[in-house]
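Figure caption, in words: inputs first, then the predicted bound structure.
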Amino acid sequence: MTPVTEQSTPVLRLRGVCTHFPVRGGFLGSLFGRPSAWVRAVDGVDVEVFPDEILGLVGESGSGKTTLGRTMLRLVEPVAGTVEFEGRDITHMSEPDLRPLRRRMQPVFQDPHAALNPAMTVGDAVAHPLRIHGLASDRADARAQAAEMLERVGIAPASAFLDRYPDDLSGGQKQRVVIARALVTRPRLVVADEPVAMLDMSVRAKILELLLELKRDFGLTYVFITHDLATAKFVCDRIAILYLGKVVETGPAAAVYSAPQHPYTRALLEAVPSPDPSHRNPNRRLPSGDVPDAADPPRGCRFHPRCPSAFGPCGWEGHDLIGALEERWTDPETFAAEASLVGSLSGARHNREGVFFPNAGEDLAGLLRRLQVTEAHPVFSGVSSIASRGSGVDVRMRPGSEPPLQPIGRQLVACHLHGVIAAALPATGEPPSVRGRNAGEDRRPPGPAT
Ligand SMILES: Nc1ncnc2c1ncn2[C@@H]1O[C@H](COP(=O)(O)OP(=O)(O)OP(=O)(O)O)[C@@H](O)[C@H]1O
Ligand code: SF4
Ligand SMILES: [Mg+2]
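Bound structure (adenosine-5'-triphosphate present):
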């Protein structure tokens, strides 16, 4: 592992970067060609990559890893924020101005089958970037440089491969060719997006070893994208954990693994399979529920619908309350005692701000107030008001707030458990140590990492 000198100028620096994609659909969208919504794939990311280090971008599918990696390389343009490469702002740099920098920042994509043109020989594929960037004096020179790099990545003897086509190669060999093509321009930064995920298990370790060896030999800086925390632990110096387009925890890999501070990081780490059967975690699973839609992220903390530690300020919505009641009524006795006050839950009208229960009276309002006081479920600490209105009961939810990244030990962590909010909470908003669905868990703010 490379010692990281955070005092040095970053190779790459992103500030407040947002990369959104238009969703076209619906009647008006198709009529006017306007997007009906935006997928907020990357939504306010600050990140730095220091010389010679390997920064891991880790998160579940859909968390924005690939989009962030592509934004770093200006393969996609952000809608907000800045991207600096070697101290130069490249956010809106024109393609001709960007071209000389492109040879110094190269991608390695996940799928080597798709990354190589089936009609181009291995030699031409690796020589192509040399010709684009004017780094070879003629065709023969480009071919010689390509051959040298192919041998360096283990495609040897290169003379036996230069005139072959990708279809003649195994998956591992194709990825070696992709790596040779990325390195032949002698880049400073390589963004490797799940570079072994699509390879046979038998070759994954060899390709990872090769990437590490090449990094040492060529003095490279890597951004390494993976959904696999075990691989990230093996490879990375620092890690940024992404959730729904935001960094929720970042810091030295050793600190993140030994003292994870964000509930999402903890859940991901609990889901990592142990190679030792005697240490297998019987509760091993990813955080419950699906990753929400990035076009419509939950308000407050985006992780709140899945977070086992969520409390008042985390942000709750009307459908969270409906979900909590459904969960509560899976117990037949509770259902028999309470459900008649509400009638059918499907009749309740809810939106982000709250729920209106039609044809319900003071009995339901009283029940909800009791549940709020007894903290039957953390969602009740997010209820701001319960009022009888007309022939129904109206429940308003506190909007919550997005937790900012703040230093905790050696990490930066975005979670209200660590914030001033936790310190200044009124009684109903306290992070509960024993409550509802997590009864028995200690959910007080954990101490700082050491
Ligand atoms: N070109 C695009 N147009 C519209 N939406 C997109 C586009 N690319 C990505 N998205 C959306 O942006 C979000 C983030 O996608 P991204 O591919 O960056 O995630 P990821 O973390 O790399 O996921 P995976 O682990 O599956 O590769 C997803 O909701 C995805 O559907
Ligand atoms: S702020 Fe922290 S405790 Fe609250 S939902 Fe998010 S991760 Fe969980
Ligand atoms: Mg991806």
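Residues 316-397 form one domain.
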